[in-house]
TrEMBL record:
UniProt xrefs under InterPro entries: CheD-like_sf, Chemorcpt_Glu_NH3ase_CheD, Cytotoxic_necrot_fac-like_cat
Top-level division of the source organism's lineage: Bacteria
Family assignment from sequence similarity: Belongs to the CheD family.
Function, in words: Probably deamidates glutamine residues to glutamate on methyl-accepting chemotaxis receptors (MCPs), playing an important role in chemotaxis.
SUPFAM superfamilies, A to Z: CNF1/YfiH-like putative cysteine hydrolases
Enzyme Commission no: 3.5.1.44
Gene3D superfamilies, alphabetized: 3.30.1330.200
HAMAP family in the cross-refs: CheD (MF_01440)
CDD domains in the record: CheD
Any Pfam family: CheD
Protein name: Probable chemoreceptor glutamine deamidase CheD
Catalytically driven reaction(s): L-glutaminyl-[protein] + H2O = L-glutamyl-[protein] + NH4(+)
Alphabetical UniProt keywords: Chemotaxis, Hydrolase
Length: 162
């Protein structure tokens, strides 16, 4: 009898955690960041689809929307599922500059999302094992347990696994 593969799809400003065999998928990563945290010893992983770098106020209604609230939300959710802080690792994609001619810092949301995400992971001592960030194109990502393969499909039709 074959195992049923759990596939969880998350949208913009959403997050989810899976245990054992399964996949988490999110689409529409332009300037947004798709961040996966996983325990490299236990089959537990989670993903958030980060839209903006910083929440405008403490305790927003949708903490997964902002890097500064999404990462703590995901971290705590993984610990509740049995992940160990010292075993957590990260993979991420997205953070594109979708409009090439915009140079105003306030509009460089992709760069700011990646910067804040990277800083917060550093503060939590979670290494970023691999990333596919920047550029000028959108992405769809899928993370698989138990293989821990992060698959990326670009809007240009390219596919790769990291």
């Amino acid at each position: 009898m074959a195992d049923t593969l759990q596939q969880v799809r998350i949208g913009i400003a959403e997050g989810a955690v899976i245990r054992r065999a399964g996949q988490i998928v999110t689409a529409g990563l332009g300037s947004c960041v798709g961040l996966v945290l996983y325990d490299d010893k236990v089959d537990v992983a989670g993903m958030v689809h980060i839209m903006l770098p910083n929440a405008p106020k403490p305790n927003p209604m949708h903490p997964q929307k902002y890097a500064d609230t999404a990462i703590p939300w995901l971290y705590e959710a993984l610990l509740r599922e049995g992940a160990r802080p010292l075993h957590l690792q990260a993979k991420m994609a997205g953070g594109a500059q979708m409009f090439r001619n915009l140079t105003t810092e306030a509009l460089r949301i992709g760069d700011r999302n990646v910067h804040v995400t990277t800083e917060l992971l550093h503060d939590l001592q979670i290494p970023v094992v691999t990333e596919d960030v920047g550029g000028h194109y959108g992405r769809t990502v899928r993370f698989d347990l138990p293989t821990r393969v992060f698959s990326i499909r670009t809007a240009r039709g390219e596919e790769r696994q990291i």
